[in-house]
Prior knowledge:
This protein has helices at 6-31, 66-74, 113-118, 128-131, 135-139, 154-164, 168-187, 215-222, 266-270, 279-282, 291-296, 300-313, and strands at 42-47, 50-55, 61-63, 81-84, 103-107, 110-111, 123-127, 144-147, 197-203, 206-210, 237-239, 252-257, 286-288. The chain is α/β, with parallel strands linked by helices. The protein has two domains: 39-166, Rossmann fold, CATH 3.40.50; 186-313, Rossmann fold (3-Layer(aba) Sandwich), CATH 3.40.50.1980. Strands 6-5-4-3-7-8 form a six-stranded mixed β-sheet. It has a five-stranded mixed β-sheet with strand order 11-10-9-12-13. A two-stranded antiparallel ribbon has the order 1-2. Helix 2 (66-74) links the parallel strand 3 and strand 4 (81-84).
Amino acid sequence: MPVTSLPRVTAVLGVAGALLLAGCSAEGADGDKGAKAAPADTREVRTAKGVVKVPVAPKRVVTLDMGELDTALTLGVKPVGSVVGSPGAGFPKYHGDRTAGIKEVGAIGAPNLEAIEALKPDLILGSLVRDADRYDALSRIAPVVFSEQAGTRWQQNFLLDADALNKKAEGDRVVAKFTARAKALGTAQGDPGSLKVSVLRFVAGQNRLYGRASFVGSILSEAGLGRPDVQNVDTFMVEVSAEQIEKADGDVIFVATYGPKDKTDHDKVFGGPLWKTLKAVRANRAHEVDDEYWMVGTGYTAADRVLADLERDLPKRA
């Protein structure tokens, strides 16, 4: 081969090598299941932190609160990881075996960022009220969709998370089905507003009566059910002492307890003289319910379980 032909041969080989490398790079990007979605595979979602690009079909979701966990499972998405309510609490039992295989990644308000990163998520769901100071660090791991609040705005949060999961149509069906069931529950009461439904929760150091702005309060409002005056307010909850427990009275009382009962005023109130004087107690209409879905779950699967308890325990009226 003449010496003058070498530069031309070298150029041809260089182009061929570049094309080969480009092909390898493209193949690697397509085959890497843990890589973030390419721009062509993303869509925009408006969040509490502005517009965020998320995968069109997220496969490895991490949830940072019980509401987000409930929402994902309600929509048929099993997260690869989720926080729990508190250290050692495990996932809410009302989900049954649907949480099998989900990795625990810390507790609410204290997620383990290393554990989350190890799962190679492609979407993280949470809220500013829980994890605002961790938003930047989480965003370096995967796209983050945050709502403003948790609990009190659970229905709006559900719609946001359904959008992020690209499950808007499924989410709309869940909402419509729940709304119809809640209205039917109220209709079965004849005049639902005349039935005063009280909700009492025992927490260590606090006895709480829940207002309309709470998760359970919004469910009762959906059904058109009445509330005792102290709870018929647009607030989250009102604290009462054991000596003020008469404020918990109503036509029906639903009682939840967070954590061990002996760490709360539960036994003191139930064993005290005032409890036995309450109208609902005397009528055998004081019912203890599961705190995990009445208070902690804050999603539509939990809300459906609350409706089931109401259907079972509310007095039947013509």
